[in-house]
Model the fold of this input.
Amino acid sequence: MTLMVPAVNVTDLKDTTLLNMGIFAVFVAITMVIVIRASRNNKTAADYYAAGRSFTGPQNGTAIAGDYLSAASFLGITGAIAINGYDGFMYSIGFLVAWLVALLLVAELLRNTGKFTMADVLSFRLKQRPVRIAAAISTLAVCFFYLLAQMAGAGSLISLLLGISDWGGQALVIVVVGALMIMYVLIGGMKGTTWVQIIKAMLLIAGAAVMTFWVLAIYGFNLSDLLGGAVETSGNPNMLNPGLQYGKTETSKLDFMSLGLALVLGTAALPHVLMRFYTVPTAKEARKSVVWSIWLIGIFYLFTLVLGYGAAALVGADTIKAAPGGVNSAAPLLAFHLGGPLLLGFISAVAFATILAVVAGLTITAAASFAHDIYASVIAKGKADADTEVKVARRTVVVIGLLAIAGGIFANGQNVAFLVALAFAVAASANLPTILYSLFWRRFTTQGALWSMYGGLSAAIILIVLSPVVSGSKTSMIPGANFAIFPLSNPGIVSIPLAFFLGWLGTVLDKRKEDPTKQAEMEVRSLTGVGAEKATNH
Amino acid sequence: MGHDAQETDAAAAVDFKEVQSTTQFKELRKRHRSFVFPMSIAFLLWYFAYVLLADYAVGFMSTKVWGNINIGLILGLLQFVSTFAITGWYVSYSNRKLDPIASEIRHEIEGHEFDKHGNPVGGTAK
Done:
């Protein structure tokens, strides 16, 4: 199988900068018009946070896929497969299977029980104030980790496209991306960002489909030949076998388990995904949206398998690692190799848009959580009117936007999929036990919820800080220091079971009992949808 | 739903404990749990079996079956297949077994709201 396309010359990329920027500008212009049109009747809090619950299942499912298929999925997984072969494929599988937890155990029950945020559900039958505060803090923490990953992706992409490897130049472009994102969210609210997600998801899936078809065509639609090509270019037959990245030591094998656990349990606890279940009118539509997104996401991950091995075969791991942007540049480099500057421009614009839209979704989630859970319920003690609440949410958007810009400037160079996996671990530790216990365990109490949320959250974050991710190795965020006393780079295998255990322990040791009538109300509402639908149809 | 419910709630005056103790509701809960719990355990076991194999049975996973396609890849793709299959199965189960009962209970409860008495049945709200 000889290569039919000339090898990638990374320096050529700079000549296409104008074209890339042009395609990106067109996307921004079109989506901005849509956002402005969509926002015309944003009046109530339900409009701003939950898009007036006006989306259909398929629309919302596409938007969920858009939220989920972030830069991590596209740039990160393709890069991970291109460099680490089979071990990168693990991300795809974990990210997809995780949706079954959301579909079977969480989505519909949550839609039936809450209004705007995750905290609505968690505090339903427990003590409002402490549980709301805990849920809002963990929402903000997860969103922050997720934002870091997206901004790191933006940094990688920009350094590749513009050939900017100096810190100041990359920082400037991250500021521009951040400013655009703030505008989308301020103007469009949930409805605007949902439309951006829908458009972006379709473009991303279409772009990936074209590239997949192209790569397969080069290898005569023979997957075995494509895999052979990847082995040939890399010179390493272990590309196709598990263990290339994680099989080296007993510790790294444990790390792989930990990653697997975090991936499969994280999705159903991601606040920005949970919030999307509120943008549909009924639980049945929530179910439909999850089904849609499972199909879209699954098909997309099958594409990334081909794209990852395609990049390994056609571009080569050495070229990818040497390119500005490193691992995350596999997909754009493959696009350049296949379709030249035009395809690169399109794919990069889509990847940019992906980052922009996901960051917008995260920001609105964090802002809603702060305004709805901390400001309206705790600071103003439920006396704030909806207008003030939305006003607070808008101000929060600006603050979070600035934080994301700052974080993005510092979190460069790490694999985005890996960073997102950390956000998954934090979400699964801090949120999932409490979500499941409060939906399914009658005896669960406030103390259990608080122990589980604070315990899981702090365990996950402390273990990340003490892990090789932050210090102690060449690829750490602070390479100079070494306080990595925790050997695993993903904390899930410790922090997730710990959070489940703490939730149980806090409950059985709690002398207070929760109000059984609230438990009855929550159970009946969650399973039947009583009140949830009528209450929101004005 | 507490203090922040701004919209009028159709179900605010319902005795949820009474609804919870009806056989109809118990049946709904049983049907829901008897599907989602075993299914969740099954797919999680299958997923972790796969992760463990990829982690500790590298030799087995690397066995080539057809060309360059090995057992690891096939099992990975089967994870996709099982995810799609369980999704489809759940949707058809919900449509057949869960939705009819749920909407029946919902109509009954929301029917109460339009009762001539208009009295809170159990005073459970808030």
